[in-house]
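Lecture 7 notes: from sequence to structure.
We start with the chain below.
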Amino acid sequence: MQKINRALFILLLIYTFLGCGKKQEKIQPTVEPITESVYASGVIKSKNQYQVYSTVNGLLEEIIVQEGSLVKKGQPILRLLNESSKLNTANAKLAAELADKNINGDKLNELKANMEYAATKVKNDSALYMRQKNLYGQQIGTLTEMEQRQLAYENSITNYKAAKLRYEDAKTNASYSARQAKNNLEISTSVQGDFIIRSETDGKLYSILKEKGELVNSQSPVAVIGDANDFEMELQVDEYDVTRIKAGQKILLNMDSYKGEIFEGQVRSIETIMNERTRTFTVKADFSTKPDVLFPNLTVEANIVIHTKDKALTIPRNYLFDDQYVLNEKGEKLKVVVGLKDYNKAEIISGISSSDYIYLPAK
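Predicted structure tokens for the same chain:
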């Protein structure tokens, strides 16, 4: 008898539980503020942040400025080692010194002296020729003597022109060699200067990406520099939502580094090229309110506010199905016009009122 009573009691409990389980949850729409937003995630970046690259290859010989230091434009931050470049510069310097020596050297001085001697001989032979010519006009001397003087004068002119040409050619070649050697020295010195990596802006050296002794090339960044106190957000927005984003829209954001705190920002610009791998667009944004301490590459989650209403008739989104129907107490579908939506609730523009009850659809 007791077993029968116990079985009846268990059946009664099961019936009661099933009956309660079938009871549908109901609510009435609520008038409250609603904000529609687009979700975005991204990172914090220092304004004017850039990666520093080397234009030459070499070993990292010296870290001149430590991470976290403020730097000025043109300030050396890293030095690379390259022995072949040093040797090239030394050879170029020797060539330049030799070229300078040649332009003022003994050979050029000798050619100049020969030219001057040839010029003097032209004058002397010219005077002797004119004297002999005058004497011959006075019937003194022979025609042969006069012609010999004339031939000697003409030969002197020819020798002078040849000596002058040799001197001018040697001088031109020496000057050209000197200029070429000087240019090569400047090029080698300039290339040598490339082994000192400098900051391109005033800012803060946030990160050095290489260790001393590591090989540096022109394909990989060696450091990160940006503004010391001015930061921005770089957010990724899905291609489905990007057409709703406009410059000036308000942003509500939070960071793992400041859990529980909400900060504000504003959309500054939208990049017009989509990342084909992630199917997202990059949105640049500025802070309106921000924490006292920020660092590049901190992660951020944001809601970009699209529309806001202070008074809207809202229902929880899980009471809405097919994005246009709700259920009444008879289980009938009522068509509604939906307005703004956030992650939890939806605005109802028409179809039901605040006095109506709606029921949670069965799953």
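Points to note: The radius of gyration is 46 Å. Residues 292 and 311 are 35 Å apart (CA to CA).
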